[in-house]
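Lay summary. Proteins are chains of building blocks that fold into shapes, and those shapes determine what they do. In this project we predict the shape from the chain. Here is one chain we studied, written as its sequence of building blocks.
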Amino acid sequence: MNFCVINGKAYDVNVTGISESFNKLYTENTKRTLDTRGEMFLDPIGTFIGHTVEFAPLNNPDEFNELWDFFCIPHAEGFPVEIADGKTTISYEAYTSTGARKLMYIRDGVPYWEGMSINLIPMRAQLLP
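And here is the predicted shape, written in a compact code that computers can read:
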């Protein structure tokens, strides 16, 4: 099983880490009441489960650079991702707004990258109320 498939392609890179996170979003109707206890009224939209994936070059530095370029290009739509989730995988349409990569060294004017970290954010909530 591939640990991470992006836009239908399993890149020839090493997945060195996957962190999973969630973000619960609420509508503008969510607010505190004005009673003496200030109780919270929640109007949830859903839970968005995203991932931070860490990649390192494997056998083909060009594929590592191709993957970096894919994430850097602004996309008007989301792209499909498949990520390891315990013993199975979770698939969703994602976008990314941030990423980083770390330079290992430069030899003869060619950069050699140690790795990159990309935040994948779901386009839609995976868990609904």
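What the prediction tells us: The chain has one helix and nine strands.
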